[in-house]
Every structure is written in structure tokens, then in C-alpha cells.
Amino acid sequence: MSVKPVAIHTHEWGGVGGCLELVDTIAKTKYRGNSWSAWSEINPRHRAFLDAILRSSMHIIATMRSKTETAQVEENGRKKVAKLGMKSEQRDGVEYEFTTVLDIGHETHHAIASKDRTKLFSNSDPVVLSEQTGKQLLNWLESGADPREDALKQFVADASLAQSMESLKPMFEEAWRTLRGSEHQAKAKEVYDLRKSELEKAGGVA
To answer: How many Å from the N-terminal Cα to the C-terminal Cα in the chain?
Structure first.
């Protein structure tokens, strides 16, 4: 049985020596405070980190801290801060890289799936994570099921129902990220191009 390491994603992103700190340091020392230029050096490092996880032959559990995301809104002519929900302390979209994402409540410690290609936790009641949860995931992982095959099948089905490029593009972008590094990526592109051509002929492209 392969070792199952734990990757602390938040530390890689926002901890000491993490991406955000390095961007700030590089911007000040090399680019006169220009953080956009600094990101050109840090983005490859962050991508390599994620790719190492995706290409690993081991099962990896990644943990990320979350915080309340807020935004300033206007209500009855007055500005106020509104809570938008919880957001992981990581780059936007990182959840697309994982097979299953479980959000754990701060007060009750119950977990609920915000994404789950295993179908073990989808549409189920919130649960307290335990050793049994790990056994469920391990059994699924060692069953030989390939979540990318399921993701491709889902994209093929969804693409056939797409009535416009506005709905097709987001489907394809998620499938492309999910299937990165596999032979299924090329098939997804074929399906996308075919459905795009059909929509263009039908006048579905603005």
C-alpha cells in the first residue's frame, strides 16, 4: 500500500515562504513593487506544486484553511459589508484539481461535499469525518475506478445538451482542467469542437 501524505495547501500559498510572501518580496526587490511581474516567477512554482500532486502515484489528502469571504454592497442607499460564504485560502479554482472536496463546518465539524466525483458523499447528509471515511475513500481508490473517465462521460452528456457557447465553454473549461495530463483531454476537445460547430450552424454563437 502506498504512503498517503498530507499536503498543507494553505501554507504553500499564504504561509512563511509561501507564494504570497514570495511575490511581495520579489516585487519589492526586483520589480519596484510591481506584483504582476513578480507573479511571472511564482506562477510556474505554484503550477509545479499542483502538478506534483496530480502526477503522484500516492493518494494525497490536501488540507486548506478557509475564511469568511466578504464584499461591500449597497443596500437602501447605504454601503455595508456582506458575507458571501467561506473561501479556501488558496488560489481561486484550486478545487478543480481534486477528486473530492469536503467542506468542514467550523462549529459542528460536520463535512459536506462541495465536489465529489466518487459519488460517495454526493447528496448525502453532513458527516463527521472518521477512520471509516478514510476506508470508504481508500476502497474506492483501490477499486480501479478512474474519475477522469467519469468526468469525460459527464462532459460528453452535458455538451450534447448545451444550447449556446455561453453554457458550453464553462463545461469544457472544467473538463479540460480535470482531464489535464490524461488521454481523455484530446477526446474532450473533439467533443467540444464538434458541439461548437453544431451550435455555429444552428446560430447559437453570438
So the answer is: 52
